[in-house]
Amino acid sequence: MRISTVLLLLSSLPAAMAGAQSTATAPGDLPGMQQQAPAAPRVVLPAEHLVIEVPKSDSDEPDAGPWAVAEVAVSGDVNLRPKTVIKAGKARKGRVYMKDFVQDDIEAILALGSVDKVSVDIAKLPGAEVPEKLARAAGVTESVRVTYIIAEKPVIRSLEVSGNKGLSKGRVKDEMTLKKKDYFDELKVREDLIKIADMYREKGYIDIQTDYEVKFDSAASACDLTIKLKEGNKARVADVRINGAEGFPVKKLVKKFKNRPKKIYAPQELSSDIEKLKEFYKNNGYADFSVDRTSTTFNENRSSATIDITITEGKKIKFGGTYFSGNSVYLPSDLLPLVEYRRGKYFSQEKLDDTVRALQDKYADKGYLKAVIVPQRNFVE
After folding, report:
1. 0.70 exceeded by the pTM?
2. Contact at 8 Å (CB) between 175 and 102?
3. Are 157 and 222 in contact (CB under 8 A)?
4. Do residues 175 and 195 lie in contact, with contact meaning Cβ atoms separated by under 8 Å?
5. CA–CA separation, 21 vs 4, rounded Å?
6. CA distance 228 to 246
7. Among the listed ranges 40-49, 169-178, 227-236, which one has the minimum average pLDDT value?
């Protein structure tokens, strides 16, 4: 059978962050700065001690700002250096601090990646004088202490791997983003488990199961992380059966696969193997080749896989004549030299695609960027 090709040319006119979320609060709403009316002392009587708590008076609270920063402090730090936190914020001794800076500082400190929660405490310092230049330039009337109150993420004190047999602990750890002495991040742990599972599947462990266990030490702001694995058996390809193959020997077709007998079964490569099969057929005369069904079966302990592929080859055809329709900018004699295939040769999808691209480029060179080339195949017995 031969195929004649008509190329229709439709010419157009020439072309000329899941980051952490935090809510900023007004300084008066921060810990130790609640606005409330004076109340009577509250007496708490434990077993042996008498404790009298006297509410702060309104005079202890700063105004709405701006403020002159007399001191900058960090509270709640265990492993993180206070300088790192202070550097991320905008509070600097001897400078102005604005109410609007609070939210910016919370976001900047959370962005360090080592802090789980942040709040900003602004406390009035009655004995501290306001620098004259700040009073004149910004209308500052009070000096304050700005304290960044943080809750750190725990540091990974130890990182262990259990249940591994097919791969070493070092190989598993190398695949992980999180390392020993990093700050614990649950999202990163789950991402690492996916990477570890993918690595195992590439090695043939199709039933790999991954999990983790973490033990926290609140006092030290640290944790011990264990990656737990259930590997299962490594699977190899026992056989690849291509049902419906008549034009070529099955061994010749399977030779192009990554999933072939005695090789490690790689399910992630199966789609690529099928595409290689399609390309081979379509470039060797089978224009209407199709893959109808694929399936994989395993033995009882899932150590070997048998792959079944059902195909429809269709008829093997050759190229016939090539004709053009819809062309007004170029004559057929101008376009025929761009045809990659030849009359009487077996059909090749690759050569037909190359021809279409060459024709489009020729029209584009003359400004017809939207020219459309549509191959129409007419079968001739």
Report:
1. no
2. no
3. yes
4. yes
5. 64
6. 48
7. 40-49
For residue 348, what are the contacts with CB-CB under 8 A and spacing of at least 6? 282, 283, 284, 285, 341
pLDDT of residue 29: 42
Q: What is the largest CA-CA distance in the chain?
A: 109
Is the pLDDT at 368 greater than 90? The verdict is yes
Alpha-carbon distance of 175 to 200, in angstroms, equals: 11
Give me the amino acid identity at 147. T
With a CB cutoff of 8 Å and minimum separation 6, the contacts of 126 are none
Residue 141 falls in which region: left (phi positive, over 0), alpha (psi -120 to 50) or beta: alpha
Which of 46-50, 153-157, 193-197, 250-254 has the weakest average pLDDT? 46-50
Element (H, E) at 291: strand 290-298
Distance, in Å, from the CA atom of 101 to the CA atom of 89, rounded to the nearest integer, reads: 8
pLDDT band with cut points at 50, 70 and 90 for residue 12:
very low
CA nearest neighbour of 172 among 182, 160, 157: 160
How many residues are recorded in the chain?
Answer: 381
d(CA 41, CA 54): 5
Coil, helix or strand at residue 308 = strand
CB atoms within 10 A of CB 254: 21
Average pLDDT, the chain: 85
Helix or strand run (H / E) with residue 251: helix 250-254
- Cα(273)–Cα(220) distance, integer angstroms: 52
Residue of 366, 288, 294 lying closest to 334 (CA atoms): 366
> Tokens for 378?
């007419």
Measured between alpha carbons, how far is 25 from 64 in angstroms, rounded to an integer? 12
Contact in structure between 3 and 381 (CB atoms under 8 Å): no
For residues 242 and 252, give the distance between their C-alpha atoms in angstroms, rounded to a whole number.
11
Which amino acid, one-letter code, is at 1? M
Concatenate the DSSP letters of all residues of 168-211 into one string: -HHHHHHH-S--TTSBP-HHHHHHHHHHHHHHHHHTT-TT-EEE
